[in-house]
Amino acid sequence: MSRRITAFFPWTLWLSLAVLSLSTPGGHKAAFRAHYKGMLLYGEGHYQRAVGQFERAYGILPGNYNFGLSLAVALSQAGRAAEGLNILDRSGRLLNARDPEYGQKLAYQQFFRGMIMMYDGRYGDAIGPIRESIELQRAVGEPKLLSIYNNALGYAILLNQGGGSHARDTLGKHYHVHKRDLLRAFGYFDRALTYDPGNSAALYNYFLVRDTLGMEALEDFFDKRDTAALAEGRALPGNSGRALQFAEYDELLLLLDISGSMVMEQVPCMGTTRFDVMQETALLVLDSLPPHTRLGLATIDGDCGTEPVAWEPVGRLSRYDMRYRLRFLVPNGTTPLLERLRYCPELFLDADSTRKAIFLISDGANICRMGGEDVCDWAEEMASRNITVNILTFLGTSSDNTNAFAEYGCLADITGGQILYMDNYRCSYEYYGNSLIESCQPKIPGLRRVQCWGPAVKELWAVVVE
After folding, report:
1. Does 297 lie in the same domain as 411?
2. What is the residue range of 171's domain?
3. Spatial CA neighbour of 300 closest among 268, 269, 264, 344
4. For 145-162, what is the mean pLDDT?
5. Whether residue 457 is found in the same domain as residue 428
């Protein structure tokens, strides 16, 4: 896996940090721990404190694209947009066209460029990058992201107006918005809801503009609505298929956590145990695999030094036998994750030409260390063998789970994988890391009819800036 590193700090300081990260035990884990803490702080609106954690993570691993992205956005929220754009540009130079996630990362890059400009009050400059992010995302899919992007574009268009204050007006500083601009913005809020009807920010903006203009003013819009865009939105895959992308490999090893906590803990929104949901997800993957995929099965159970309940190399079991094994797994023991990971490569074929992956489903952090090694150290070994690790976890994204998510972050990031977690509020599998994007949900402040340009201009509103 390539490691192209670009300098954020002065060269001598960067070199000392790079050496420190390579020589200090747990350097990778410390970086991912800091990044996770930064994500929690960012989600709570503590942007300056989040910057501190993101700077720590980025200082340890300045070549990590996601760390740079997080730092760039947090800096802009903390009033340091110019620094944020600089970090964003540096992170963009790390992109590699051979990366399987190249298209998605390009879309993120442009979207966050637009959001940073919006946070800096440069709404007109934000429109171009957000438009480009939409086109890039359409090639990748993922309707929830397209919904977020379209809502942000509508917001930028609406606020891309002249601002001013008027001596006889009690509004203070505000942005002028003409009817034509409200209609243009409304079109993007409408499209955002086509991609995700549950987007609360888009719903708020949609109804605010609709109620401001009135339904009569919107008759032409609905008559000329872009039906092709509507059909595209409905045709995109929904949340239920997210786990299936983790099965798109020639050799796939299901690594399933059957520890006691999996059956003791419930998935509240589904009224059943984590163990049951894990089984059903694994069976869904099994039923969706193409015929050429070789499938293996391994379990995380028992304790440090014990034999696993299941340890089947890829290709050994028929689909019928695999279904039987999955149906009759029995919860047992704890979570010796590193022990299982360390020996997982022996379950794959000795063929460099095949795409290999582990699909880990778990609800806990590793409990066993082996020779002073931890999960993050072993992730490098997985990457050197071209084994991708994708993860589905039932743990919530809270501070209590910092250690587990630090380990998951290492495994996925270093091996080129992704992380899904069960969001019990939405009862859906969500991408870990998307919370940064999902926070980019601007809502229009109140609209008020004004006559700042004289009585001849009748269709003028003001967006009031607090």
Report:
1. yes
2. 133-236+436-466
3. 344
4. 88
5. no
> Do residues 380 and 423 share a domain?
yes
The Cα 43–Cα 266 span in angstroms is 25
pLDDT on residue 2: 33
**CB 446, CB 426: distance < 8 Å:** no
Q: What is the pLDDT of residues 39-53, one digit of tens each?
A: 999 989 999 999 999
Q: Does residue 67 contact residue 31 with C-beta atoms inside 8 Å?
A: yes
Q: Nearest 5°: phi and psi at 460?
A: -130, 130
Lowest-confidence range among 33-37, 88-92, 246-250, 292-296?
246-250
What pLDDT is attached to residue 243?
A: 77
- DSSP annotation of 23: H
**299 plus 424 within the same structural domain:** yes
Residue 273 neighbours by CB under 8 Å, 6+ apart: 262, 263, 264, 265, 266, 267
Q: Return mean pLDDT, the chain.
A: 81
The string of pLDDT tens digits covering residues 403-418 is 889 999 999 999 999 9
Residues with Cβ within 8 Å of 204's Cβ and at least 6 positions away in sequence, in order, are 443, 444
State how far the Cα of 451 lies from the Cα of 460, in Å rounded to an integer: 7
Pair 411, 375: CB distance under 8 Å = yes
Domain membership of residue 123 (yes or no) is: no
Residue 117 pLDDT exceeds 70? yes
Q: Encode burial over 38-62: b for 16+ CB neighbours within 10 A, e otherwise.
A: bbbbbeeebbebbbebbbbbbbbbb
Classify 401 as helix, strand or coil. helix
Ranges 71-85, 299-313, 420-434: which has the least confidence = 420-434
Residue 100 to residues 105, 225, 241, 418, Cα–Cα distance (Å) = 10, 35, 18, 11
**What percent of the chain has pLDDT above 90?**
37
Tell me the mean pLDDT in the region 106-135. 94
Q: What is the C-alpha to C-alpha distance for residues 192 and 390, in angstroms, rounded to an integer?
A: 29
What's the number of domains the chain is made of?
A: 3
Residue 354's CATH number:
3.40.50.410
**Do 415 and 270 share a structural domain?**
yes
pTM: 0.69
Q: For residue 252, is it within any domain? A: yes
Q: Which of 233-237, 249-253, 456-460 has the lowest mean pLDDT?
A: 233-237
- C-alpha span between 325 and 318 (Å, rounded): 11
Give a yes or no: residue 3 inside a domain. Answer: yes
Residues 247 and 329 in one domain: yes
24 plus 51 within the same structural domain:
yes
For 277, other C-beta atoms within 10 Å of its C-beta total: 19
Q: Which of 332, 347, 411 is nearest to 374 (CA)?
A: 411
DSSP E strands in 192-293: the ranges are 251-257, 266-267, 272-273
